[in-house]
Amino acid sequence: MNDMNLSLSKLISTLVRLPILPEIILILSLVAILVMDLLDRQKNTKLLYKIFLISTSISAGVLLYQWQFPIFLEHFQTSNFNNIFRFFLLIRSLLSVLLSADYILCSKMALAESPSFELAAGLAGMVLCFANDLVTIYVSLEFLALSSCFLSGYTKLDIRSNEASMKFLLMSGASSSLLLYGFSSLYGLSGGQLQLDAIVGGIPFNRYAPIIYLSVASITVGTAFKLSLFPFHQWTPDVYEGSPTPVVAFFSVTSKVAAPASFTRLFGLIFPYLSNEWHIAVGLLATFSMIVGNLIAVTQRSVKRMLAYPSISQIGYIMIGVLAADSENGYASMITYTFIYILMNLGTFARIIPFGLRTGTDNIRDYTGLYMKDPVLTFSPVLRSPSLGGIPPPSGFFGKLYLFWHGWKAGSYPSVPVALVTSVISIYYYLKIIKLMFTGNNGRSDTPITSRQNSLVSPSISISKSSLEIAMIIRALASTLSGIFIDPIIEITRNTFF
């Protein structure tokens, strides 16, 4: 009996330390959701989304336990750097699933496909964060892109959603072709090596400099499409505007987590001898992204389209931390700001989703006089919009201050002043919405309120609006108060590079 207990204990210990166990849990939950949807004719929404929430929470708990056990395998390499971004993706899933469920129930769309695609995309993003060879990176990146494409076309009867899905598919295919060309060049020059560390030792940089430069350019352009960096950002506003609002929230966060993590490892490991070249190129892309994103956002009338352009500028801010290339503070500033951005941005969409469900519009003008109709919807952006704009004292100010300071110390002299100026510009269009909420009535009748249902109960049971309001308040407080605890967050993220 003692031997059996000892063997069982060793088996559990080995299983818990399995580096891909969090991803395995998500795969099992994905299969469970699909099977339950096929077998349950009554479409029990409560069960489907509880499976999503429970499995994601367990996966996050396992990942936190594994944090102290860095493991290296042939195709995967876990470290604090990778685990942080995997954990961010799990946080994104937990924060966004409830709002997407409410949206789907109100829109009367298929129930199981949304959590299935979100799980698949989150799974691909987590694998992308710690993939250690070119094939795994490419396959996980394409898996993430295809899942995102299906989500953008989720409302099949909406012609704008179909258009967004088609544009996303075409742009993603073009960027993938360039990325694959760069990968194939590295594969050939290194003598058939796939692992990132082996490629560095196998490439004769002095003999094949022109081809290596072409490979760097192809990979840079391919990843710039995924990151929505200027001038490869054209698909982002159209896809944001045509996609369902919860899907837009998914896009705005997931790409800011998985893609920078993969980009940092890919360029930091393979091209250390060309750091000056790709630093200059990416620095220019990031600088123009900040300028174009903030200037064009001022002119937008659609809320979703307006938020698309700040997402372009936000990735420019995040790239400042990547370019700092400091394993103690540079990457820590990037990771810290990414975490704060997740809370701020998901909180912003927590306000937009219920407003869109009630009014059926995303026009900025329709927010006029909102404080008279719904004080909670007004309270949420009042706390969060200053944080997105970098106004003190919310957390966004401290995150940007830490990021820009270490970017300046690392020598990003052109990018940091541009980031400061464009951050001031962003305050205008964030505060413009707040001003509209408190400035009179828009001349229309009271905003129609559609019936909404709780995402975790049967669709036949209607409830009050308190669940969405509580979710908005929690996100608003989290994105605001995280600035108070920024020192512990920074300390955790230091010395996390692979």
From TrEMBL:
It catalyses: a plastoquinone + NADH + (n+1) H(+)(in) = a plastoquinol + NAD(+) + n H(+)(out); a plastoquinone + NADPH + (n+1) H(+)(in) = a plastoquinol + NADP(+) + n H(+)(out). Pfam families: Ndh2_N, Proton_antipo_M. GO terms for cellular component: chloroplast thylakoid membrane. Its main location: membrane. Residues 131-426 form the NADH:quinone oxidoreductase/Mrp antiporter transmembrane domain. Its EC number is 7.1.1.-. GO terms for biological process: ATP synthesis coupled electron transport; photosynthesis, light reaction. The chain crosses the membrane at residues 20-40, 47-67, 87-105, 117-141, 168-190, 211-232, 278-299, 306-325, 331-353. It is a multi-pass membrane protein. Keywords: Chloroplast, Membrane, NAD, NADP, Plastid, Plastoquinone, Quinone, Thylakoid, Translocase, Transmembrane, Transmembrane helix, Transport. GO terms for molecular function: NADH dehydrogenase (ubiquinone) activity; oxidoreductase activity, acting on NAD(P)H, quinone or similar compound as acceptor; quinone binding. Residues 19-101 form the NAD(P)H-quinone oxidoreductase subunit 2 N-terminal domain. InterPro entries: NADH-Q_OxRdtase_suN/2, ND/Mrp_TM, Ndh2_N. NDH is composed of at least 16 different subunits, 5 of which are encoded in the nucleus. HAMAP family: NDH1_NuoN_1 (MF_00445). NDH shuttles electrons from NAD(P)H:plastoquinone, via FMN and iron-sulfur (Fe-S) centers, to quinones in the photosynthetic chain and possibly in a chloroplast respiratory chain. The immediate electron acceptor for the enzyme in this species is believed to be plastoquinone. Couples the redox reaction to proton translocation, and thus conserves the redox energy in a proton gradient. Belongs to the complex I subunit 2 family. This is NAD(P)H-quinone oxidoreductase subunit 2, chloroplastic. It comes from Onychium japonicum (Japanese claw fern).
